[in-house]
Specification:
Number of domains: 3
Oligomer: single chain
Radius of gyration: 26 Å
Number of helices: 21
CATH topology of the largest domain: TIM Barrel
Strand content: 15-25%
Helix content: 25-40%
CATH superfamily of the largest domain: Glycosidases
């Protein structure tokens, strides 16, 4: 059986295989020389297979024909723009297409169904007619995520050009055709006139394992050390991949709010709101000009469009005198004031960007504050408040009935909707690098208010295809260890309705061969408990609300018992990846799993000690248990320090935050032991969590 993902629209297996070959002769028409180079680039992970432009007796013939005439499909426009027809016979294959994207997709499919033999390769005899269900399959990958707001460097933030090229190739293998590059915090490019907002020479503490001390270094984003963004965008464009800037509409725009706290929005007095640092006061002199200037610079860099994310304040908006007069006095609620102000800013950005690139696509991720189920009148107001060619990247979010999506499609129009909310990938980052993809990775998942798991992403993608919207966006805030999300975005964004379990199995088999079964077993078997789930952790954290109880002890003990087997399997995968060049790109993924699973084991003991503490009545024994908890807390942090360096609290925003609960755990235990000298300086579990405390 031929295994090809994304799942093709039509695949007829003829039975049998071609002869064995080590070269492919690509025959193309005069003037089509670029096809050979594109095909060679698409065979990025097959250096032993040559694509040649001269006929040889032992070479397999691949005929490229720019014509799809006579082939009927359900979506003729998408078929012409991105589709292909590939027929493989014993001695030759014919690849028909009309657009370059179709050629690339066809060559990609051919590569994926290659079968390695002792003396070369062969192909299954088959006929494939394929095209996407939606024009756009986008991923949102981190280029600079919340840099300076609690996250300095991790995962794809640390990549140079070659890393991004490898990732682009993997995305092309999954027929992704748009990148929404997330750029939050310090800008990862030069911004003339505002050097203080650029990600250059930023002080950060890293762990020096040699003397077990923290060391302060100056960190610069890789794109500023050796600029490559322009080169990467040009390469992506050769493959028909659009590059969008995923930035804040008025939030996390460079480091302006860090360096200019006076320009931040003014929260209500004695409100208790902590996230008063992410957005600029639009009445403060120069702030709107700064935002517009930064958006224009992005246009000059060659980006094809924007995904502008509205900040997540739902219950307050700037209450300086200027904003009161401009926004509050003409609205009834803080949410209405925010909406009106942001739409004013959106029009300013819209006009300024179009001066530089009239073709730029401008989209927003907005209207997210509760209630998530919107009234039709509100949606109409949203539609009427912005230019008609503003696209929507959030329609709607999670946690709502399916008919809410129908309501948004009706209000905005299907062509304007480029994505629903599919951000389960980001939850691993939010949870301090602890692996969480499937429902099975959690204890008592059914009690969680948060639906950010891959099963929900797949449901959202299927709904998008069913409604026939313009595209999907799959969040990929982190890459290492989380590849199944990307496979899902590609497969279901292409239009597959495949059973989930069948998809997981096929995806692992296709990418990992004989190791696929082990890879899937490890992914689904890791059981993750976030440190905030221990009973004595009282600091609000919206992404894992249910606390562990005595009733969870059997599940925890089962996870402990399974831990040695999982570690054996992960170590085997790491060894195989070291030794097999084909698997080498996946080695960092298995490294991250090893780190996460080692931490899981420690956190199990942390939770069990905390539950013992809750039951214990003897003061002396309770004190001993607090020592145990502190020991496991340190041990957990030590393992994290082996892999990550952005793990200490950041205070530049005025709110102390850290993605790892380690520091806050120590504060809470200090306050238990010293009620007479309490430390009231909360260390929030991730600055981005603050906007979600309504969950």
């Amino acid at each position: 059986m031929i295994n090809l993902l994304p799942e093709p629209k039509r695949l007829v297996e003829k039975g049998g295989f071609t002869g064995v070959f080590r070269e492919i002769f690509l025959e193309f028409e005069k003037g089509e020389e670029e096809l050979l180079e594109l095909a060679r680039l698409r065979f990025w992970n097959y250096p032993e297979l040559a694509l040649i432009q001269e006929e040889k007796e032992q070479a397999f013939l691949l005929c490229a024909r720019r014509s799809l005439e006579g082939i009927e499909t359900e979506k003729p426009k998408l078929f012409r723009e991105q589709g292909y027809d590939l027929e493989i016979n014993e001695t030759e294959a014919v690849l028909r297409f009309e657009d370059r994207a179709g050629f690339i997709n066809g060559v990609t499919s051919l590569k994926q169904i290659l079968s390695a033999e002792e003396k070369g390769f062969r192909l299954p005899l088959c006929h494939i007619t394929d095209y996407p269900a939606l024009p756009v399959r986008a991923i949102a990958q981190t280029f600079s995520w919340y840099a300076g707001y609690g996250r300095f460097g991790f995962d794809s933030q640390l990549w140079g050009y070659e890393d991004w090229v490898q990732y682009l190739n993997i995305c092309l293998d999954n027929k992704i055709n748009q990148f929404n590059l997330v750029m939050y915090g310090y800008w990862p490019f030069d911004l003339p006139g505002h050097p203080e907002t650029v990600f250059r020479d930023v002080p950060i503490q890293i762990w020096n394992a040699e003397n077990r001390r923290w060391l302060t270094v100056r960190y610069t984003h890789p794109n500023l050390e050796e600029p490559f963004m322009d080169r990467f965008i040009r390469l992506a464009h050769r493959f028909g991949v659009k590059i969008f800037a995923y930035v804040g509409l008025n939030s996390y725009n460079g480091a302006y709010t860090i360096k200019h706290p006076e320009a931040r929005m003014k929260p209500p007095k004695s409100s208790g709101f902590l996230n008063d640092f992410d957005s600029l006061c639009l009445s403060y002199p120069g702030t709107a000009d700064y935002i517009i200037e930064s958006m224009q610079e992005i246009a000059r860099l060659g980006f094809d469009g924007y995904t502008l994310e509205e900040s997540e304040e739902g219950f307050w908006f700037c209450e300086c005198e200027g904003c009161k007069k401009r926004w509050h006095d003409t609205t009834n609620t803080p949410g209405e004031a925010k909406h009106k102000a942001n739409m004013w800013l959106l029009r300013k950005i819209y006009d300024a960007v179009r001066e530089i690139n009239p073709e730029a696509v401008i989209g927003i991720r907005a209207f997210r504050q509760p209630p998530l189920e919107k009234e039709p009148a509100f949606l109409k107001e949203c539609v009427d408040s912005m230019p008609e060619d503003i696209m929507l990247f959030w329609a709607p979010g999670l946690y709502v009935p399916e008919d809410e999506f129908t309501k948004w499609c009706s209000a905005f129009g299907k062509e304007r909707i480029w994505a629903r909310d599919t951000e389960s990938n980001s939850i691993t980052s939010t949870m301090g690098r602890l692996y969480r993809t499937f429902r099975s990775n959690l204890i008592r998942y059914e009690d969680e208010a948060n639906e950010q798991v891959i099963e929900t992403d797949i449901r959202q993608h299927k709904g998008s295809v069913r409604m026939g919207v313009h595209g999907i966006n799959g969040f990929m805030f982190e890459w290492y260890g989380l590849f199944m999300h990307l496979f899902a975005h590609g497969n279901y964004g292409w239009g597959s309705v495949m059973d989930e379990e069948e998809f997981y199995r096929k995806a692992c088999e296709l990418n990992f061969g004989e190791l696929g079964e082990t890879v899937l077993h490890v992914m689904k078997s890791m059981v993750t408990i976030h440190e905030s789930q221990i009973p004595l952790y009282t600091t609000p954290f919206p992404f894992q609300k249910n606390k562990m109880t005595d009733g969870d002890i059997p599940a925890i003990m089962a996870a402990k018992e399974n831990h040695p087997k999982l570690m054996e399997e992960i170590e085997m995968l790491r060894r195989r990846a070291y030794n097999d060049p084909k698997l080498r790109p996946w080695l960092p993924h298995f490294d991250k799993w090893a780190n996460a699973e080692r931490r899981n084991e420690v956190i199990y003991d942390l939770v069990l000690a905390a539950l013992d503490y809750e039951r214990e009545t003897d003061p002396a024994k309770k004190d001993e248990l607090l020592d145990q908890i502190l020991y496991y807390n340190e041990k957990d942090f030590d393992i994290a320090k082996e892999m990550f360096f952005d793990i200490n609290p950041v205070n530049e925003t005025g709110v102390s935050s850290c993605m790892f609960p380690y520091h806050e755990m120590k504060r809470l235990i200090h306050n238990i032991r010293h009620p007479e000298a309490k430390d009231e300086n909360i260390i929030c579990s991730g600055v981005e969590a603050l906007g979600w405390l309504w969950l």
